Amino acid sequence: MSELEALAGRMLAPHRQLQPANAYYSAAMLRYAGVDVHAAGDADLYESVLRHGIDCPRRSTRCHLDLLMGFVVGPRLRVGAPVLHLRLPVSQARSRG
C-alpha cells in the first residue's frame, strides 16, 4: 500500500473502509477502454472514443482521455466505494481549476 493509500484510508476511517487499490490509471484504461495510454496517439484515442459510442469532435489527447475516463472507465470502477486513481499521467493529474 502506498503512502497516499494509507493517508486516504486514515481520512476515511471509521466511516468507510478503503479496499486495496486496483485502479492504476493506465491499467484501468487498458482493461475497460482498450487503450494503452503510454503508446496510443491522438488517432488511437479518437477511435476508442468513437468505438465506445461517444460522439465528439476531434480534439486533444487530454479531451479524449477525459471522455474515456468519465464515460467508459470510471463507471466500471467499484460502484459505491471510494476509488483512488494512482499513477495518472501528468496531463491528467494537474488541477482543472
Please give a structural write-up:
The chain has 5 helices and no strands. It has 97 residues and is mainly alpha-helical. The two termini are 29 Å apart.
How would you summarize this macromolecular structure in one to three sentences?
It is built from 5 helices and no strands. It is an all-alpha fold and 97 residues long.
What percentage of residues falls in helices of 4 or more residues? Answer: 40-55%
Q: Topology as H/E string?
A: HHHHH
- What is the overall silhouette? elongated
Main sheet overview? none
How many whole angstroms does the radius of gyration measure?
A: 15 Å
- Separation, N- and C-terminal Cα atoms: 29 Å
Strand content: under 5%
Give the beta-strand count.
0
Domain module tally: 1
Uncertain residue ranges: none
Number of helices: 5
Structural class: mainly alpha
Mean pLDDT: 77
Question: Which key phrases capture this entry?
Answer:
single chain, 97 residues, mainly alpha
Topology:
Layout lengths: L2 H10 L12 H9 L8 H10 L9 H13 L16 H4 L4
